Amino acid sequence: MSSIRYEIKQSTKARHIRITLYPDGRVVVTKPVRAPRSAAQDFVDRKSAWIQKKLEYYKNREVQPLGPVRSKTLAEALAFVKSRIEYYNQHYGLTHGKVSIKNHKSLWGSCSARKNLNFNHKIVELPLVQADYIIVHELCHLKEFNHSKKFWALVAETIPNYREIKNELRNYSFR
Ligand SMILES: [Zn+2]
After folding, report:
1. Residue 158 CA to ligand 1 centre (angstroms)
2. How many angstroms separate the alpha carbon of residue 61 from the centre of ligand 1?
């Protein structure tokens, strides 16, 4: 028996047992309601080498907390964001309202109903790919004010690997 800790989720829709790993180290085993718990354990045991390897990978990957904004002033952050919006808007050609840098506590960006685009001042501390993803995400909300398939298709027009980048973004904290 492996010593892997996991959570069990029961699903009425699941037809097979499956394992989901999260970058924070959580292991979730989803099983059909009728499958016994022992079957979930067997499955984890069989997959244990793979799970360990993945967890190891997540653990070793550097989590980069963002430091306080030091060298970059808010004006610089605004100039940076505006230039990236301009760059991507050559493709999208969307009309937007005011662009501002906000001291959001938990958001990277937002798009208001009045089409104003707001970005967290820490965006300048992110690697460019992550910052660009956030900018494109909010830019696309100007056209699709939701997270529908249409919205993601729009994002993918300029950032085809947005899924990967979005997952990576979870490794960057606001503190
Ligand atoms: Zn969104």
Report:
1. 16
2. 26
pLDDT digits (tens, 9 = 90+) for 1-19: 557 889 999 988 888 999 8
| DSSP-based three-state secondary structure for 11 | strand
| Residue boundaries of the structural domains of the chain | 7-60, 74-169
Mean pLDDT of the region 126-155: 95
The CA 11 to ligand 1 mean position distance, Å, reads 28
The residue-averaged pLDDT of 53-72 equals 61
pLDDT digits (tens, 9 = 90+) for 31-44: 999 999 999 999 99
Cα of 17 to ligand 1 centre, how many Å? 31
Residue 45: count of CB within 10 angstroms of its CB: 13
Taking the model in full, what pTM does it have? Answer: 0.60
For residue 83, the CA-to-ligand 1 centroid distance in Å is 20
Fold type of domain 74-169 = Zincin-like (3.30.2010)
C-alpha–C-alpha distance, residues 153 and 172, integer Å: 25
| Distance (Å, whole) CA 133 – CA 126 | 11
Distance from Cα 143 to the centre of ligand 1, integer Å? 11
